[in-house]
Design a protein that fits this description.
Immunoglobulin-like, binds copper (II) ion, Cu-oxidase-like_N, disulfide bond, globular
């Protein structure tokens, strides 16, 4: 080993182990890997139960053709392994889609991410919601750092880096916060393109005593823990766009990458990378405590209103049934489902709902007795009929501001 390399290694070891912790040291072995991803593995619109041949909207995103990629894309994602040999992959729930594995820690803990890049471009891992120093930020920008402080900024193909993150009291959930806060991690060499390519995953930081000692740790305070990314994933930004055109379009030469209709066909209105109800079932028991960790990423189109049909959510101490999600916002919602059945989660933004941003969640009774009906109020009846009417948006007939008639042509 050259003297310079030895110095780097020593400085790196110093930076890794010098943070004192009274909590656990949580090691995660993450490999960055290429994969093929299908946004609609069931091959149909599950919400309307239509085949693609009978559904012009769904097929405009999902059917491949002469100059259309269709439902499958090459992506690059984070995968978790059991140790530093990166040979045994740790399974994750199917509903997580292409998201990376769940990372979790308590206040006082240190998270060590052993990242290895098996893909063909430089990538990193950059977290939200935890403490890190310059050697563990994972973001490439001109911050004046150099030497070993720069090694985290871009991990080349075949390279690796250990990122050291911690959860000091300054980053802890407050008394008024839920037991675990919702965060994410993602690659940040070119963040918009890295994330569109698939490099994003969930992270939670919890109050002390929330996680049990199992591997992986389970939360003691809730019965179910779900993570949903609402994002119009823009495959036009993916590093693999040219690859995907070459692989999936039957006449790649006919593709015009600047064509608006082609670009629209690659904007996948997804929840965890699934569209049109293809998200594998999110199952839970009635009367149990459910934590929903919701987050958004993307562009100005990524204004999402996630409506959980049939149940009530609690967000920041308020009851609601819709969660507001914007790019890089992280929402922790709690639910105690009251009624069993299959229920819809849909983004209420019209064009998003129409373009497939919907999924099902299933509440089973799990032999839990329903709560005793304690309603003591009145029964209030309303008799409502639907009518067709003629509606006039300007009944006074003139512009109230200018006084000019609304009826004259050209006004
Ligand atoms: Cu939306």
């Amino acid at each position: 080993m050259k003297a310079g390399h030895l110095l780097w290694a020593l400085l790196l070891m110093h930076s890794l182990w010098s943070i004192p912790t009274d909590g656990a040291i949580r090691n995660y072995y993450l490999g960055i890997q290429d994969m093929q991803w299908n946004y609609a593995p069931k091959g149909r619109n599950v919400i309307t139960n239509q085949t693609l041949n009978n559904d012009t909207v769904a097929s405009s995103f999902l059917k491949s053709g002469k100059n259309r990629i269709g439902s499958s894309y090459k992506k690059t994602v984070y995968k978790e392994y059991s140790d530093g040999t990166y040979t045994e992959e740790i399974a994750k729930p199917a509903w997580l889609g292409f998201l990376g594995p769940l990372l979790q820690a308590e206040v006082g803990d240190v998270i060590l991410i052993h990242l290895k890049n098996f893909a063909s471009r430089p990538y990193t891992i950059h977290p939200h919601g935890v403490f890190y120093e310059k050697d563990s930020e994972g973001s490439l920008y001109p911050d004046g750092s150099s030497g070993y402080l720069k090694a985290d900024d871009s991990v080349p193909p075949g390279g690796s880096h250990v990122y050291n993150w911690s959860i000091p009291e300054s980053h802890a959930p407050t008394e008024a916060d839920p037991a675990c806060l919702t965060w994410i991690y993602h690659s940040h060499v070119d963040a918009p393109r890295d994330i569109a390519t698939g490099l994003i995953g969930p992270l939670i930081t919890c109050k002390r005593g929330t996680l049990d000692g199992n591997s992986p740790p389970q939360r003691k305070d809730v019965d179910h823990n779900f993570f949903l990314l609402f994002s119009v994933i823009d495959e036009n930004l993916s590093w693999h766009l040219d690859d995907n055109i070459a692989t999936y379009c039957s006449d790649p030469a006919s593709v015009d990458k600047e064509d608006g209709a082609f670009q629209d066909s690659n904007r996948m209105h997804a929840i965890n990378g699934f569209v049109f109800g293809n998200l594998p079932e999110l199952s839970m028991c009635a009367q149990k405590h459910v934590a929903w960790h919701l987050f958004g990423m993307g562009n100005e189109i990524d204004v999402h209103t996630a409506f959980f049909h049939g149940q009530m959510l609690s967000i920041r101490g308020h009851h609601t049934d819709v969660a507001n999600i914007f790019p890089a916002t992280f929402v922790t919602a709690e639910m105690v489902p009251q009624k069993s059945g299959t229920w819809l989660i849909s983004c209420e933004v019209n064009s998003h709902l129409r373009s497939g941003m919907q999924a099902f969640y299933k509440v089973d009774s799990c032999s839990m007795d329903p709560p005793v009906d304690q309603l003591t109020g009145k029964v209030r009846q309303y008799f409502i009929q639907a009518h067709e009417i003629q509606w006039d948006y300007g009944p006074i007939g003139y512009d109230g501001r200018t006084g000019k008639s609304l009826r004259e042509p050209g006004r």
